[in-house]
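dumping this here so i dont lose it
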């Protein structure tokens, strides 16, 4: 006997509780949605943008520091350069005021060495002896007129240049604070112009002034102060500061450049920032030299040459510095143009790369 089939004891199968993915796995869908999310893109771009800004700032600082380092090194070298001080002969040739100053300084020394004041005081009787100072001043004026003609000659200019070259080594030692100083004393830097006495005597004789006829010219120590002691101290201070700058600024430039190149994501933009830094540094230095020229002339204008010759020295230093800055700016311009070209080419290459992010399948 057969029994009818009993009803199923198990409940029917339930519908699936999780949706079945069609086409694309969950991991790929989530990855695609995460890649195309605008907020996620902004989050990824923030550190890149920060790195680029930091790199640009560091390279800009490197450009400015490098320019200041070049200026410091060049200025210190120019101040101590022999040709800078030999250029003071230009003031003697071209500036009548400098000619008068040099002529009077030499005339005063000759009158002092010969002892005109004592000679006149001994010749004038009694109360007239008090007029010796006036007579001495008149003699000094006559000798000064003769000396102006001597100073204008090429022979005297050659003597001047030779005296500057002979004194230059001791000047460098005085600024460095080393070595034995002979022609630099409490009055400053002096030039030995004794070799010009023969020409001086010749000019005096032509004018009927024979005070040197009975004088042994070789016994006259004709020293003319070029720069006074305070001026030398200021030059020494400048040299020390410039030497420190010629070490510190290049060190800062190297450290900033290396750090900037390591940090910057797009190095071409960082190199452009360095070139701009060179331009800015050169502009700042040009403003400083333009504003400080008169002050520098005033600081070293002591001595026989005064403001005119100090201006020649300062202009000689500044002209060399200007040439150095022009070379630095030319190199920066080349780097800037090369960086711009590289940046344009890199941008075109990036635009030609196809987008590898695929949209999720339907």
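and the seq i came up w/
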């Amino acid at each position: 006997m057969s029994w009818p089939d009993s009803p199923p004891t198990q409940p029917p199968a339930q519908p699936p509780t999780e949706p079945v993915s069609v086409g694309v796995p969950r991991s790929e869908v989530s990855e695609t949605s995460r890649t195309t999310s605008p907020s996620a893109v902004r989050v990824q771009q923030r550190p890149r943008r920060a790195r680029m800004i930091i790199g640009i700032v560091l390279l800009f600082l490197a450009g400015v520091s490098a320019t200041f380092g070049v200026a410091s090194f060049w200025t210190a070298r120019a101040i101590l350069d022999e040709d800078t001080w030999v250029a003071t002969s230009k003031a003697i040739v071209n500036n009548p005021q400098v000619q008068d100053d040099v002529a009077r300084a030499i005339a005063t020394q000759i009158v002092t060495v010969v002892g005109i004041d004592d000679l006149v005081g001994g010749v004038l009787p009694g109360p007239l002896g008090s007029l010796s100072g006036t007579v001495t001043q008149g003699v000094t004026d006559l000798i000064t007129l003769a000396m102006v003609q001597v100073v204008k000659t090429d022979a005297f200019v050659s003597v001047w240049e030779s005296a500057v070259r002979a004194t230059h080594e001791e000047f460098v030692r005085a600024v460095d604070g080393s070595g034995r100083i002979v022609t630099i004393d409490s009055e400053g830097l002096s030039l030995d112009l004794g070799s010009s006495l023969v020409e001086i005597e010749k000019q005096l004789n032509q004018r009927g002034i024979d005070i040197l006829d009975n004088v042994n010219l070789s016994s006259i120590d004709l020293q003319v102060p070029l720069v006074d002691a305070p001026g030398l101290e200021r030059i020494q201070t400048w040299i020390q500061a410039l030497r420190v700058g010629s070490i510190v600024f290049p060190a800062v430039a190297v450290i900033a450049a290396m750090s900037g190149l390591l940090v910057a994501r797009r190095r071409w933009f960082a190199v452009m920032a360095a070139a701009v830094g060179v331009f800015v540094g050169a502009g700042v230095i040009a403003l400083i030299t333009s504003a400080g020229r008169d002050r520098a002339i005033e600081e070293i204008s002591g001595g026989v040459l005064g403001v005119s010759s100090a201006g020649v020295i300062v202009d000689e230093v500044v002209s060399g510095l200007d040439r150095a800055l022009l070379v630095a700016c030319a190199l920066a311009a080349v780097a800037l143009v090369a960086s711009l070209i590289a940046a344009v080419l890199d941008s075109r290459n990036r635009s030609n790369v196809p987008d590898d992010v695929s949209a999720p399948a339907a």
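Residues 52-79+234-343 form one domain.
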